[in-house]
Write a structure and sequence with these properties.
- By secondary structure, this protein is mainly alpha-helical.
- The chain has one domain.
- α1 crosses α2 and α2 packs antiparallel against α3.
Length: 73
């Protein structure tokens, strides 16, 4: 996710608690969704779609933080 910001992501994960929580939650959802889609964890379509929407919302928030940090640098 956002390879152009790889170094900035690493820095923010260690320096910004809010960013770190957003990033970790996004990764957690990614794993849960993958497990549901591959049948490792049972889930219905509604649950998967709901988690995907939350993941997308988090990705948008992460991007906003990255843009602000990049512009401030």
């Amino acid at each position: 996710m956002f390879p152009e910001y790889r170094d900035l992501i690493s820095r923010l994960k260690s320096e910004d608690g809010h960013f770190s929580r957003l990033f970790e939650r996004h990764n957690e959802l990614d794993h849960r969704i993958h497990n549901m889609e591959t049948g490792v964890t049972p889930a219905d379509t509604f649950t998967i779609e709901s988690l995907k929407k939350e993941k997308l919302m988090l990705k948008d928030k992460i991007y906003v933080v990255l843009r602000k940090a990049h512009e401030a640098a």
